[in-house]
Amino acid sequence: MAKAYHGCWPTMITPFTADNKVDYNAIKGLVEWYIKRGSTGIFAVCQSSEMFFLSEQEKLDIAKAVVDAAAGRIKVIASGHTSDDHQKQIDELGKMAEIGVDAVVLVSNRMAKKDEGEDVFCKNADDIFRQLPNVTFGLYECPYPYLRLLSDDFLTDSAKTGKLVFLKDVSCARDIQKRRVNLVKGTNLSLFNANTVTLLDSLIDGYDGYNGVMANFHIDLYAWLYENFAKEPETARELMDFLSVAAMIEARCYPVSAKWHQNAFDVPMTTVTRSKDPALLNENGIHEMECLHRMEIAWRKRLGLAL
């Protein structure tokens, strides 16, 4: 039986208007697109959402808009605790919980500085759990501004004590993923892989789903993979090869690329972002987006998915 948190989830992009304000109409459209294409949850207010470039109020307003648009049809989780100050982070987390998200997501690199050890990380985590005892938490190994992977001991304790229900794994390493499956076995902690290349193997090993940037381009293909990898292993492996190569498009000035792709083929929005200059998506990059879309259509036809 699938855990409460499972399936394919986007790391949601934040649409902006031409004058650099949050585009709430596009957010509604994007939520509907995710649901129509097979998403079982949404990770709003994350790195893809440009959370380090949002005001505190914008983070809360975006999360509320996503919760309202989803209207209970799928789960919504959100992060947004980007402050350096520990107590300020707790304040951010508490306010986000009040919005009504299903879980509030901790960011591993916010809980200890790069040069601080596991003792500091665990001390700060325990303090968060102590001060917010009624909040349901997930955790994201966000690679910006630096990557801090969870220790086996912390993950095991969090799983067995029920402190976490969701982990977005950014290890990109099969040996770590295999070990983590065993560490959380028999608990309610769900393991989500952010990495496309290792996704199929991690699902075979026991991961609970995918939570990555490419869900903003073709989440329906990931959803098919999740639902059918055991039943149609040969097609799943072939699809995985395509998805792995397609995921290289992330290097093409994401999230500008995802916004261009959405605007051209799915949900109207600008390419305005706060983390990158939209002009970085040049003519060659646009041709790459068009090539990607044609291949998406070919795979949808092959798998019998809606175009």
Mind explaining what this structure looks like?
- This protein is α/β, with parallel strands linked by helices and 307 residues long.
- The protein contains eleven helices and eight strands.
- 46% of the residues lie in helices and 11% in strands.
- It has an eight-stranded parallel β-sheet with strand order 1-8-7-6-5-4-3-2.
- The relative contact order is 0.13.
- The model has no long low-confidence stretch (mean pLDDT 97).
List keywords for this structure.
single chain; 307 residues; alpha/beta; 8-stranded parallel β-sheet; 8 strands; globular
How do the strands and helices of this protein lay out in sequence?
Layout: E1 7-10, H1 24-36, E2 41-44, H2 56-70, E3 75-78, H3 86-98, E4 103-107, H4 118-131, E5 137-140, H5 152-161, E6 164-169, H6 174-183, E7 190-193, H7 199-205, E8 209-212, H8 215-228, H9 233-246, H10 256-265, H11 283-303
Parallel strand pairs: 1-8, 2-3, 3-4, 4-5, 5-6, 6-7, 7-8
Helix pairs in contact: 1-2, 8-9, 8-11, 10-11
By DSSP, the count of extended strands is 8
Computed CA radius of gyration, to the nearest angstrom:
18 Å
Helical stretch tally: 11
Helix % is 40-55%
The SSE order reads EHEHEHEHEHEHEHEHHHH
Dominant shape:
globular
